Amino acid sequence: PQQVWALGVPVLGICYGMQTMAAQLGGRVVPGAEREFGHADVLPVGDCELFDGIAGDNEDPALPVWMSHGDRVEELPPGFRVVGAT
Asked: Where in the chain does DSSP place strands (E)?
């Protein structure tokens, strides 16, 4: 919902959520070369409060997630930055 963007809080999008945010807010989403489905680990990239308390510790910082998608974000919306990767 559009109201989410007016809250002024960080928002983490994984898989379809990330693609939806990118498309809604001016990024570019394109078809991927292949579909992905199943377990994945999101690894924090740099410092981001979104992972505080939910990602692992320093020895294993991975956040287990479930993914199902065939598209990918090719260009982030203005003002966004990558904070995690699989």
From this structure: 28-44, 63-75, 84-85
Number of other CB atoms surrounding residue 84 within 10 Å: 22
Pick from 9, 15, 8: nearest CA to 29: 15
> pTM for the complete prediction?
0.74
Structure tokens at 3: 């109201």
Dump pLDDT digits (tens) for 21-75.
999 999 999 998 888 889 988 888 877 787 777 766 667 778 888 888 889 999 9
8: which 2 tokens? 């002024």
| Phi-psi sector, 8: left (phi>0), alpha (psi -120 to 50), beta | left
Torsion of CA 69, 75, 81, 85, to 10 degrees: 40
Closest by alpha carbon to 83, among 47, 55, 33, 59? 47
- The pLDDT assigned to 57 comes to 63
